[in-house]
Amino acid sequence: IDYHTTGDYKPYFYRTHDYGKTWTPIVNGLPADQPSGSFARVIRADTKKGGLLFAGTESSVYVSFDDGDNWQSLMLNLPNTSYRDMTIHDNDLVVGTYGRGLWILDDFSPLRELTSSTASEPVHLFKPGDAVRVRRNVNGDTPFPPEVPHAANPPLGAILYYYLRSKPAGDVTLDVLDASGNVVRRLSSAPIPPLPDPPPAVPDYWLEKPRPMPVEAGLNRINWNIRYDNPPAFTHNYAQVMGAVAGDTPASPEGPLALPGVYTLKLTVDGRTYTQTLTVKNDPRSPASAADLRAQHELQMKLSEGAAEAWDGYKQVTAMRDAVAAVTHANPPADVTSAAAAFDAKLAAVAGTPGTGRRGGGGGFAGAGGPPPPPTFVAVNAALVRQLDTLDFGDMAPTESMTNAYANGCGELKTVVSNWKAINARELTAFNEVLTKNNLQPIAAASPALPVPTCGASPTTSTRSSRRR
Fold first, then answer.
1. What does the alpha-carbon distance between residue 353 and residue 187 come to, in Å, rounded to a whole number?
2. CA-to-CA dists, residue 42 to 28, 74, 82, 327, 456, angstroms
């Protein structure tokens, strides 16, 4: 009841348990003397949790966990203003103000789970609300200037809450597992090193800056964007998905989107684990069928895994080149120096050179009057990453040209892995014979051995082709 027109600025909220026969005031914990007024404006009951109430007054927003017996502030970053209306949309609380806009508390699921004993637990991983598999804006927008008023969208994917009674001694991790127990994504509180790329040709204001998991005492929040871990790449691109919201443009490539389904969250704090389940639903606007999504996901995973294998191969070659450089830096005999130079040239030819353009040094294009150079790990990584980016612009079944492109890229990966295995078997053995002859320590073969990929193409469910290649 609102009595402010009579000069009474106190809050008056009431509750009935007998369909209106009797009414009980429920104002304990609500201030009555705020300078801008404390009178009641709106009250709403949660649609899922009995006894969870929200109230708005002329100055503030409040929450009650015991059907109104006690109230506490829910202001967070809200302005001191008049709160005229409220609605609950799924897991979001939406409040309307007088002159200060609409405000949304994204996914207040933890409020439904909070009990008096939660604060006494050392760690509590809250059951998250259902997440929707939504792609970020991938249009080539012209971002709004910073001075133009605009608001950020909710965090992508699943919003995950966890409570820590005290700051943990070590790093905290949160693993997302699929139905088979495979790790889809690992989040961590460890510092995230910056990318080694040169500054992109866009203002830093727009770039997404990945942050580690917060580990402060109390309630913490992080989101999982429904993607697998990003595949390693030698260069990253921000221009592909320039969204018009500050801090919302990630570096590509990104990991493939996970499929709709039920996932397990495993939070590890100081050696102990805590689990919850998370349901991921498909975007209701998606035109793709479940079979289309599975075919696209299968191809994207092959591309991501192939890019990762090419990355691992480059790292193995680089480690061996470092070992060869250590030999030459020790001023060995002339025959060792000569053999080392020849061996290093073969290693460089299979590794490739990062930062040498889209092809990454080798593979794919013929020279003047000759065959194309052999593929390199850098070039294969770049080619597979480009294909992964292309597949990430919408939900769709792979076309025949997409599966053919993958088959070609996988064939180049197979070639470069086979060449690398041959170097370990032949050229390394020959170089080690020269080292042994000069009483020098031989160089160990690369370990673990990279698997030679099998390059069967993913199925396509498009109407133009449903064949396996």
1. 31
2. 16, 14, 10, 78, 61
Which has the closest alpha carbon to 26: 51, 58, 60?
Answer: 51
First-to-final CA distance of the chain? 71
Residues 60 and 147 in one domain: no
Specify whether the CB–CB gap between 162 and 220 falls below 8 A.
yes
- Length, in residues, of the chain: 469
Domain boundaries, position 80: 1-105
Buried b (16+ CB within 10 A) or exposed e, 67-96: ebeebeebeeebeebbbeebebeebebebb
What pLDDT is recorded for position 366? 46
Per-residue pLDDT tens for 110-139?
A: 999 998 889 899 999 999 999 999 987 766
Return the residue matching tokens 């599975």.
294
Q: Looking at residue 252, what DSSP letter applies?
A: B
Q: What is the pLDDT of residues 265-305, one digit of tens each?
A: 999 999 999 999 999 999 999 999 999 999 999 999 999 99
Q: Which residue has the tokens 């070039």?
A: 379
CATH code of the domain covering residue 200 = 2.60.40.1930
Q: Are residues 90 and 173 in the same domain?
A: no
Instruction: Give the separation between CA 315 and CA 311, rounded to whole angstroms.
Output: 6
Look at the chain and report how many structural domains it folds into.
Answer: 3
User: Model pTM greater than 0.90?
Assistant: no
Query: Crossing angle, helix 400-422 and helix 377-390, to 10 degrees?
Result: 160
Task: Say if residue 412 is in the same domain as residue 337.
Answer: yes
Residue 47: closest CA among 111, 124, 103: 111
- Strand 218-224's sheet: what is its strand order? 123-125, 158-164, 218-224
